UniProtKB/TrEMBL annotation:
The keyword Nuclease belongs to this UniProt entry's keyword annotation: no
Name of the featured protein: Carbon-nitrogen hydrolase
Enzyme class: hydrolase
Family named by the database record: Belongs to the carbon-nitrogen hydrolase superfamily. NIT1/NIT2 family.
Length: 278
């Protein structure tokens, strides 16, 4: 690793339906975070567009090769001289479906890795609040880990947070950090956001970076905010609360090994015979 410490920032935005405005808002926060010393900047899920409904999303999604937001964020990373996680962008695929895709970009503007959200948020929360991501998005089928100057970053998105085996796989493959960009609903965020992110950090001995959407969006969709940075011991190092902005923390990579030495559960995994549903 090149140095044991660095500063990471997680952005918190209230994205709307205009991609240009959303890109500009995220870019301004990235500039502020870089000026404050951030060397790794992470954006939330749907950072460039919080549309509602399959028709609107597909109409505004763009192919990777000509994606407005991807081009802009690659240039921003290069101009700022930092590593940038793009949250997720809506990438148009062949056949009229969309990928909810993350990119990690280096300080030269080069793409280090891609990750398509694996788990689709198909839920009915009650009170008329319902989501069917699988009607619009094609799920990914591959976990992606990116090597940064300070260690390895495992990629995930929002609803993936509820599937701990994904993060266990990253930790067992050598991840030091986990990215969880999200647009968590206000309903589920109030109940589960903090505890799930702390649990993933504790279970894996990884730092968790969770940039977030906040506020009210198209179709009166409400997101929870509270962008978090969590230590490998499960401590909340920074919390973005409910307004747009960014949070930042100094990341000491040595604390990953410290946490895993204290509780070496990754070394204690054992194979077992799983139960069969009767």
């Amino acid at each position: 690793m090149i140095g044991d410490t660095f500063k990471a920032a997680c952005l918190q935005v209230n994205a709307g339906t205009d991609m240009t405005q959303n890109i500009d808002a995220a870019a301004r926060l990235a500039v502020e975070a870089r000026a404050a010393g951030a060397e790794l900047i992470l954006m939330p899920e749907n950072v460039a567009m919080m549309e509602w409904g399959r028709t609107n999303i597909v109409m505004k999604a763009q192919a990777e090769a000509e994606h407005q937001a991807l081009a802009a964020f690659r240039e921003i990373a290069k101009e700022l001289g930092c590593f940038l996680h793009t949250g997720t962008l809506h990438v148009l695929l062949d056949g009229g479906m969309v990928a909810n895709r993350s990119y990690v970009i280096d300080k030269n503007g080069l793409i280090l890795g891609r990750y398509d959200k694996i788990h689709m948020f198909d839920v009915d929360l009650g009170g008329g609040e319902s989501y069917r991501e699988s009607a619009t998005f094609t799920p990914g089928d591959r976990a992606t880990m990116v090597r940064l100057p300070w260690g390895r970053l495992g990629l995930s998105v929002c609803y993936d947070l509820r599937f701990p085996h994904l993060y266990r796989a990253y930790a067992n493959a050598g991840a030091h950090f986990l990215a969880v960009p999200a647009a968590f609903t206000r309903t589920t965020g109030r109940a589960h956001w903090h505890v799930l992110l702390r649990a993933r950090a504790i279970e894996t001995g990884c730092y968790v970076f969770a940039p977030a959407q906040c506020g009210t969006h198209a179709n009166n969709r409400e997101t929870y905010g509270h962008a978090l940075i969590v230590s490998p011991w499960g401590e909340i190092l920074a919390d973005g609360l409910e307004q747009p902005g960014f949070v930042m923390a100094e990341i000491d990579v040595r604390k990953v090994d410290d946490a895993r030495k204290k509780i070496p559960c990754l070394d204690h995994d054992r194979a077992f015979i799983a139960p069969v549903r009767d």
